[in-house]
Amino acid sequence: MMLKRLLAAISTFVFMVTGFAQNKTTVTSPDNNIVVHFWLDANGAPMYDVAYKNKPIMLPSALGLDIKETMTDKPLPSLGKNLTVVSTIPSSSNTTWKPVWGDVNVIRDNHNEMIIKLSQKGQDAIIFNIVFRVFNDGVGFRYEFPEQQNLKHFIVAEENTSFHLTGDHKAFWIPGDYDSNEFSPNVTNLSEVNAMDPKYAAAIFAHQFFDSNAVQTPLMLKSAEGLYINLHEAALVNYPAMDLHIDKSNFNLSARLVPDALGNKAYLETPAKTPWRTIIVSDKATDIIASHTILNLNDPSVIKDVSWIKPTKYVGVWWEMHVGKSTWDYAGSQNASSFDPKGLKPTGKHGATTANVKRYIDFASKHGFDGVLVEGWNVGWEDWFGQYKENVFDFVTPYPDFDVKELHHYAASKHVKLIMHHETSGSATNYERQMDTAYRFMKANGYDAVKTGYVGHIIPRGEHHDGQWMVNHYVRVAQKTASYKIMLDAHEPVRPTGLCRTYPNWLACEAARGMEFNAWSEGNKPRHETIFPFTRFMGGPMDYTPGIFQLELNYWDKNKKETIHTTLAKQLALYVTICSPLQMAADLPESYEKRLDAFQFIKDVAVDWDDSKYLEAEPGEYITEARKAKGTHKWFVGAITNENARTATVNLDFLDAGKKYTATIYADAADADYEKNPEAYKITKQTVDSKTVLSLQLARGGGCAVSIVPVK
Ligand code: NOJ
Ligand code: CA
Predict the structure, then answer these.
(1) Which ligand is nearest to the CA of 545?
(2) pLDDT digits (tens, 9 = 90+) for 543-577
(3) Rounded Cα–Cα distance for residues 313 and 636 (Å)
(4) Of 37, 151, 524, 544, whose CB neighbour count within 10 A is largest?
């Protein structure tokens, strides 16, 4: 503490004697590879730049906010000019913490921090801080507004943070839509981004709020010199998500916050702080996906007893609806306005029947799965979609052919947990009114995990999935579920920002274009999952729902010619390359029963890890990773590729020296090909040790999964 104060005094003194405009405060990473400068320009405007290994990665870039009065909407003096530095307070931290679940069992948080206390000039000056934390793999910075007489509550009209890049980097991007992140990731240079071109913006909810030059984060960039740069945010709470607007004349990217129904960005009451803006950088692609900086910038868990939080592998009454074998609704959508469960006969295609759910429970129990998700169990699916109705579902009224009590007892007798589904159809107001009732109903009937969903326009009307109101809603759901000891999986929320550290019951989110698109759209490209670790997964785990074995879709629908753009072996590898404590085996029991030898990998693979090795990666091209299952000596390797075949060379030097292991290799067959022969695989076994180097052959659109188990 003494040292901290002394350093603070010295740094303030240095600042004062060295003058004002152009004098820079420097913050470096513990290894000195990253150097951040902060200064006020001649107009008193806050600026920063960043260098990595002596090369600039952010040119001088603007900071600051424009604010307004909450009652009158009148502009308040800007927090982006006429500022003075009051003091600068440096500190350092080098600690470790244990995540409840994750890719490793211990995370190091080693950073240098600088709090820069700023004040407006003149009378009634507002004070605020800009805080930088610099890690060995990146930078986080945020704005803090202390409690003060001159600023009690205010509107954020605009945040003027910018990221002035050094050139026309290659970008892995999705359009800056306020309501959906379910786009195929695009790969173009920044100068070619066109978020309004349907070629780049095919999503289920493409809204009209586009700026053709705006993209969402996490934005992955690669410079011509081969530097990998990731821009995102951490700890998004009580604030809207940040999109980035690209100025193509100079590659300055500026924050573009998602507005509320009135066009304002955020309402804050002091004390307040914004989310961290994050810049992860390395000359190695694998360092980006191995980074824990976003988690480190989030607050520790607020849940003290975490014993009820269990990483979960599950199956579900789900894919069968997406491929059209059965329906969510009981009585057929044409009966929308006249649905009466007593008067109507079921269509005969309803998926969530007691008998069908029992079939999945039996399958889960036989093969060692923890849970069974059931969608389409509650009244309302006749007219849930595209209606913009406030009250569609009540979350406690089952269809007449779904026996809640009987299934509760049946699942318990088979040691399987049922997973609840709450589709809100975007009506968050309705959900908020019913949450307590819904969670009490869940607990009374043996459920301790819920999958939520926000398909469609948001109610309150005019709010967006990614605006401040909904950001707060998702957090309220995480808090409320935690208070009931319920684990959470949110579909269609804002993209995650590491809040799973603070709320470890929030096992996963969708927040990206998942497997479901392969059932009913033009499908995901072979490169799809080679990009996600660099984009969507930077903020936390995804419920991607891998494990599809029936890859030719005409099996389900004679009119379909498509195959899903993957091989079967790649579906197995995804259980390793997608790190999530919640993983589904998404295909139907009958698809697995036909291929039990390949299914063995899904049964064996872990969902929680002691360690992870990020062996090789290039966004859009390939990824090879190895993970050690928690509390065991078993390793699992996953290698995936894009539309090009390749050889993944895997050095097993991470195995314990001198120990023998049996490796079971689930590979693409020699003639496998994602377009022509996707389901061809071969399984081989060999004894390996830490000196073994495996050479894994991946087909076009293919992959390889390996389980490595110590020889007894
Ligand atoms: C979209 C979700 O992502 C999907 O998993 C779910 O089945 C449907 N909505 C219906 O709620
Ligand atoms: Ca979805």
Answers:
(1) 1
(2) 999 999 999 999 999 998 888 999 999 999 999 99
(3) 16
(4) 544
- For the domain made up of 312-603, give the CATH fold: TIM Barrel (3.20.20)
Domain with CATH 3.20.20.70 in the chain: 312-603
Per-10-residue mean pLDDT for the chain, 712 residues long? 43 39 88 98 98 98 98 96 97 98 98 98 95 98 97 98 98 95 96 90 63 96 98 98 98 98 97 98 98 99 98 98 95 58 73 98 98 97 88 95 98 98 98 98 98 96 97 98 98 98 98 96 96 98 98 93 94 98 98 98 98 98 98 99 98 98 98 97 98 98 99 94
Report domain 2-296's class.
mainly beta
Where does the chain hold its CATH 2.70.98.10 domain(s)? 2-296
Query: Could you tell me how many residues make up the chain?
Result: 712
Radius of gyration of the chain (CA): 26
**Which tokens hold the place of 92?**
């350092």
Q: Is 256 in contact with 176 (CB distance < 8 Å)?
A: yes
Residue nearest to atom 7 of ligand 1 (CA): 318
Q: At 198, phi and psi to the nearest 5? A: -55, -25
**8 Å CB contact between 581 and 505:** no
How do beta strands 635-641 and 46-52 pair? Answer: unpaired
C-alpha of residue 401 to centroid of ligand 1, in Å: 21
233 lines ligand 1 (CB under 6 A): no
Q: What is the pLDDT of residue 345?
A: 67
- C-alpha of residue 101 to centroid of ligand 1, in Å: 25
Please tell me if the CB atom of residue 625 comes closer than 6 angstroms to any atom of ligand 1. no
The dihedral of CA 390, 395, 396, 399: what is its sign?
Answer: positive
Q: What are 668-704's pLDDT values in tens digits?
A: 999 999 999 999 999 999 999 999 999 999 999 999 9
Neighbour-count burial of 74, counting CB atoms closer than 10 A to its CB (0-12 exposed, 13-18 middle, 19+ buried)? exposed
Q: How far apart are the first and last CA of the chain?
A: 52
β-bridge mates for residue 120, sequence order:
83
Q: Is 562 a catalytic residue?
A: no
Ligand 1: does its nearest atom lie under 6 Å from the Cβ of 513? no
Question: With 0-12 CB in 10 A as exposed, 13-18 as middle and 19+ as buried, what is 335?
Answer: middle
The reply to whether ligand 1 has any atom less than 6 angstroms from the CB of 455 is yes
From the list 516, 529, 621, 679, the catalytic residue is: 516
Ligand sitting nearest the alpha carbon of 204: 2
Checking 342-349 for CB contacts under 8 A at 24+ apart, the result is: 342/400, 346/399, 346/401, 349/325
- String of DSSP letters for 582-609: EEE--S-HHHHHTTHHHHHHHHH--SSE
- Looking up tokens 């003149």 gives 122
- Distance in angstroms (rounded) separating the CA atoms of residues 603 and 268: 48
3-state secondary structure of 628: strand
How many angstroms separate the alpha carbon of residue 175 from the centre of ligand 1? 21
What distances in angstroms separate CA 656 from CA 146, 175, 575, 685, 689, one per listed residue? 51, 45, 23, 19, 8
Contacts (Cβ under 8 Å, ≥6 apart) of 425? 384, 385, 387, 389, 392, 393, 453, 454, 455, 456
Q: Give the global pTM.
A: 0.95
Tokens of 91: 């500190």
CB atoms within 10 A of CB 331: 23
DSSP secondary structure of 499-520? TTTT-TTEEEE--S--TTHHHH
β-pairing, 449-453 vs 417-423, is parallel
- How far does residue 545's CA lie from ligand 2's centre (Å)? 11
